[in-house]
Amino acid sequence: VANEGGKHWTVNEVRALIRIWSDKNIQQQLEGTVRNKRIFEQVAARLQKFGIDRDWKQCRTKYKNLKHEYKSVKSAQDSGSTSKSMKFFNELDAILRHSIIEQ
């Protein structure tokens, strides 16, 4: 899993990122493109409004890491294992459940 580039994300920063990510408009943009620098620049700008100083690369890396962790926890659960969990699973499940089903 990639390095997040510098300082550790706090719980509040991750919550803010997830809140922005849960925006249907952002989700549709992310699902529809591979070259997503501009989308993550928007995400970083919105985080800035919360007083969170992250650049687009940090946002994209955190997004990818969260998504990766979610998928590995989800597949462990689907195979009957309850030993794997993650902090923001329920929030991510609410966002990602529909997009994974549609794939």
TrEMBL record:
It comes from Lophotis ruficrista. This is ZSC29 protein. InterPro entries: Myb_DNA-bind_4. Gene3D superfamilies: Homeodomain-like (1.10.10.60). The gene is Zscan29_0. Residues 7-95 form the Myb/SANT-like DNA-binding domain. Pfam families: Myb_DNA-bind_4.
